[in-house]
Amino acid sequence: MTVLDYGIGNLLNVVRALEHCEAQVSVVEHSAEVRELPDRLVLPGVGAFADAMAELKIRGFDELVKRYVVTERPFLGICVGAQVLFDASEEHGVHPGLGLIPGRVQPVPAAAPDGQALRIPHIGWSGLNMPTVRASWGKTPLAGTQSGAAVYFVHSFAPVPTYDEHRLADTSYHGVRICAAVVRDQIFGCQFHPERSAETGIGILQCFLHL
Q1: What is the DSSP track for 107-159?
Q2: What is the pLDDT of residue 10?
Q3: Single pTM value for the model
């Protein structure tokens, strides 16, 4: 499997977590290094959306990801690596994404439904909930995850899919519904960090490796 290194993010922890799952990991820094499309592809990321997209384009990873996903092999984006799958982000202006999942990346609301001010960024452990449109998490990286299991978040923005069918999991931040994971065919994205989510996160990565 291959992990894309574009100078944005939590690369080392992601690679270590995958190797802990006994994955054979290849890290590449430019699309020219990819001679053959791998069986699985991971795009990590921490930081600003616009910076991430700029680096993806410089390294040719934007077109590589688009070529890869049409093969219907498993793809996993993490944090900003999940956000760039969408049409655009509203972080520091409007910036176009890869357009692989309809929707936008929008700010996490600064207030709860009852008017309580929320701490932004949203940092810490929150439980994963199954959206009502889904019958199960089968055949996804969450297949072995229990509803309510806590995972680790660090973010001020989150994806808002146009269609609920692309919501794989949600979390609740003091009553605010936040999209925690997305899916479209074999494209998966986690707003949370599985590599920092202890046994639950390792289980999610192991499921991804067995899709």
Answers
A1: EPPSB-TTS-B--SSEEEEEE-B--TT-S--TTSTTTTPPTT-EEEEEESEEE
A2: 79
A3: 0.97
